[in-house]
Amino acid sequence: MVTENREDHIRSLLRNMSAEDFMNLGAGQVAYIRMIEDSKGALYALCSADGRPLSILGSFEEAVRSSLSNKLEPVTVH
User: Fold this and answer.
1) Is the C-alpha dihedral spanning 58, 61, 67, 72 positive or negative?
2) What is the pLDDT of residues 31-48, one digit of tens each?
3) Is a pLDDT exceeding 80 seen at residue 4?
4) Residue 19's CB: how many other CB atoms inside 10 A?
5) Domain of 60?
């Protein structure tokens, strides 16, 4: 019963999020890693939750390390 009420509450909150709320979801907690192509090959963009680029790195591993060293949870974007 309590779990259902909590889940309903969470669903309601998510349905009522504004575009700004959604954009700020994960701000200061999550960093997205996205592969980008360059004339020299693949690079990895580390971006904030709102999509703002934080840095461009030479390898996926560097991007993960950079994210973790800045206390951000790394996630990938396909």
Assistant:
1) positive
2) 999 999 988 899 999 998
3) no
4) 7
5) 2-76
Torsion of CA 63, 68, 71, 77, to 10 degrees: 50
Residue 30, strand partner residues: 73
Q: Say how far residue 67 (Cα) sits from the centre of its chain.
A: 10
Q: How far apart are the C-alpha atoms of 25 and 20, rounded to whole Å?
A: 9
Backbone angles phi, psi at 72, to 5 degrees: -120, 135
| DSSP-derived 3-state class of residue 48 | strand
Q: What is the pLDDT of residue 3?
A: 66
Cα dist from 50 to 10, 12, 24, 40, whole Å: 21, 22, 6, 27
Q: How far apart are the first and last CA of the chain?
A: 37
Claim: this prediction has a pTM higher than 0.85: no
What is the count of structural domains for the chain?
1
